[in-house]
Write the structure tokens for this entry.
Amino acid sequence: MSRGTLIDKIWDAHVVSRDGDSDLLYVDLHLIHEASSPQAFDGLRLAGRPVRRPDLTLAVEDHNVPTDSLLVRDELGRAQMQALRDNCAEHGIEHLRHGADRQGIVHVVAPELGLVQPGMTVVCGDSHTSTHGALGAVAFGVGTSDVEHVLATQTLSLPRPRTMAVDVQGRLPAGVTAKDLVLALIAEIGANGAAGHVIEYRGPAVEELSMEGRLTVCNMSIEAGARAGLIAPDETAFEYLKDRPCAPAGDAWDAALEHWRTLRSDPDAEFDRTARLDLAGLTPYVTWGTHPGQAVPLGGRVPDPASFADPVARTAAERAQEYMRLTPGTALRDVEVDVVFLGSCTNGRIEDLRAAAQILRGRRVRDGVRMLVVPGSMQVRAVAEAEGLHEVFQAAGAQWRLSGCSMCMGINSDRLQRAERVASTSNRNYEGRQGTAVRTHLVSPQVAAATAVAGRLAAPGDL
């Protein structure tokens, strides 16, 4: 039963039935892509079942698509994309193809269309579905068998998640971004610090974030082990949604707005856990290891594994530094990079591109460094080109790409082929995530742009 948290309120409103420790939850929106759906459709076909609610399902090609052309050269990627096209045609599901005007990364496209709205439940066969919590929705990633279950029934049986409040104290200092905020949080509570919980982010700094910043924070919630992240909807969310293609209009908008304004945790709401993050003195953050929790301020140094009291953390640090080829005490600003990646469902939105372009304007990417700029959607790409941002990137020597997940993960033609070091605005820095032996440092768009110019990890002020 609800204890007054927004998480519980949305969850309770969607429970169809209860069976022991699990709730059968109604799903308002089901997002699918080519990498996690083929087996689910095969299961439907074998069981002779149709898709229950194709009208509540959206398919997007994003994981396997190349971003340098419309030609799909990877055989597996081409097969998965064709399977998605065939399955969507068979079941009457709206489908956004590679290169189409509205195509892009699923977690960029769905909010952009206004499909995700406050109070909804949203699922997708992708862990970063937590992104959509920025709009006041309970959104989480699911496995392939779950994708099949939702396609067949528009419901899913799940244990009720525990609740966690993250109270962000203070305000973001100048030059510090939402990406730095969430990296600092994960570094503080650990990569499993929110395991089994849905996080609600609260506090003046959160309320002052743009919608793009909120999407970044909720996107990274999964990297703290959370099931999802959530921010109570407010005027920022309502303004973002207004007049979007799939948002309510006219009287329906007024009715929706009246309901959305009720979606808040009660003042005396009881959370299972509460964590606090103090923003005083916060500076840009960068990861040094092989998970997002292994992060320190950019002005810091690679830590000595011996400084970790926990033997598991100490061993993890030793392994991470061996893989990353870093030695304790190395200043992060002395770490040179080979590649800079600006994009992904974490930081591929128009605000991110504008911030990076501002730093690159009139400057050049350092010789020997490659920079890929990959818009999160074709709509983001169109807006960026209308503003002339692509000319700034190209004049600086960066590659201006089509939309897709790109080198966030190594399952498409943008993956790296050798042991290079990357400054990446994406969300994961695991071993081999961007290609075999590739060493990844997670950064904000501003740090990515400055790093491209400097050829080493750098903040804009270092230029």
The longest strand covers residues 162-169. The chain has a mean pLDDT of 96. The domain at 285-462 is CATH 3.30.499.10 (Aconitase; domain 3).
